[in-house]
Amino acid sequence: MARALKSMLAPSPVAIQFAKPVLVEKAPVALPRDSTSSDGTQIGDRTPLLDEKKTFSDAINPQENGTDIERGLAVVMSRQSQKDAEKERRFITEQARLFREKKADAAETRSRAIKEWFSLYRCMFVVIFVPNAVGIGYTLAHKWKIGEEWNATFALSLIMAGLCARSEVFVRILYNVLLFLFKRWPPFWFRNGIATFLLNIGGVHSGMGSSGTLWLITSMIEFYRKGGNIIHPAILVFVFLASFILVLVCASAWPSLREHHHNVFENIHRYAGWTGLGILWILVGLSDTWNVEEHNFEARRLYRKPDIYVAVGLSVLIFLPWFTYRKVPVSAEVLSNAVILLRFEGGYPSGLFGRVSRTPFKENHAFGITSKSPDSNEHYMCVVGQGDFTRGLIADPPTHLWTRMYKFTGLPLMTSFFRSGLYVVTGSAIGVALSIFIQRDPKSKWHMLWISGYVYVALVPESLFAHLPFL
Predict the structure, then answer these.
(1) Could you tell me which residue, 30 or 459, shows the higher pLDDT?
(2) Each residue of 190-240: pLDDT tens digit?
(3) Buried-state track 170-197, b at ≥16 Cβ within 10 A, e below 16
């Protein structure tokens, strides 16, 4: 990783300054002495990385071991045998399993708590959801003729708008258009507002999706009110199935369920979503061709309503990124028991993320892309072992991975909106941050603060800081 990053930094016209790392002493995670790891070994008594009388900070202390940091690293690693390294790997894995992310401190006052809870994300959700809920109420009360006639079209249109807010193709186009139109020249508050909107665009996705689901349920209620004598029984069956699947998709995205059972959420969103799209196609074909007066299906009625065109748009948004799915070779370098560097062919612009998977349709995980320029020969993904998938990459480095060749953009790209600022990066996010810094405008005045634990250990044997100057 050090050689890769050094080669990327060398020809860059942008001067990047790295502050000398500050080592913070952290108390080790206390584990019961009789605890047992997943492989049956006792983890209460562990062989420490260093002797009990010498800490990691002491090992690299210039006053005791000179100014050469690599000498300190050699002292540390010379104390660790092959057996001790395996024990340490198991210990780190067990700590990762027991680790739980620390929640933010509670707000000091009730008004502050309400303000923090009612974020822009929730504001956009409310602004979208409430008017639709009112319209649905008037429609069910038979006080709004437009809602009664076009409820199915409303449902499809809102679902499509919600998918746009999460479509990798649409969002990347939106980012580039906003950067082209409003880069630098508008006032700060305007540019900051755009960046804040893009950060909370998920509120549009959830608001539109929930509203579209309610409109589809409204359409189902209206169909059942008319009864099987007017509406074909097949339409009643498929509108119920479509409504049930969309409710299931929305329920799986509930924050607590998504946080604790992310794989369940992902699988339901993908497979139930695809199933729901197929059912929507059947429903559109049946309902739009059904002639209530003649009690028969007429194909020529299909193109007269916008539903079929919205269904086409939905299908394109969902499946377009999957057409770029490829199995590509990857060069994997295990930097430590916790970090692996993945190298892929081809360069990309800054601020992009890529999804990788061992299998085509399961566990697509996104990681930041580090690339010197769009014309470079390779790009990188720095992966930290935190979950089952990432730890599996470290334990069994891949030679090929499935990935979408069309990469999606993220909020870091919006740093181009501003002339100066402080970029705070934690952990492996240094990858996409370096890419942005290398390819940024040389006239900009940005600084970067990288916060990471156990940097030296994570980058052994080729430490990044052994090849970069300390300032």
Answers:
(1) 459
(2) 988 888 888 888 899 999 999 999 999 999 998 888 877 788 888 889 999
(3) ebbebbeebbeeeeeeeeeeebeebbee
Q: How far apart, in whole angstroms, are the C-alpha atoms of residue 290 and residue 447?
A: 63
Q: What integer pLDDT is reported at residue 90 of this predicted model?
A: 65
322 with 404: CB under 8 angstroms? Answer: yes
Q: CB within 8 A of 284, min separation 6: which ones?
A: 152, 156, 307, 308, 311
Q: Find the DSSP H helices in 56-201.
A: 56-59, 62-65, 69-78, 82-98, 110-117, 120-140, 145-164, 168-182, 188-199
- Report the alpha-carbon distance of residue 278 to residue 463 in Å, rounded: 51
Q: Identify the band that residue 466 occupies on the pLDDT scale cut at 50, 70 and 90.
A: very low
Domains of the chain from N-terminus onward: 110-165+201-319 (no CATH), 324-466 (2.40.30.10)
d(CA 80, CA 460): 13
- What span, in angstroms and rounded, lies between the C-alpha atoms of 67 and 285? 75
- 359 DSSP 8-state letter: B
Residue 62: cis peptide before it, omega within 30 degrees of 0: no
Where helices occur in 362-465 by DSSP H, the ranges are: 388-395, 430-439, 455-459
Does residue 302 surpass a pLDDT of 70?
yes
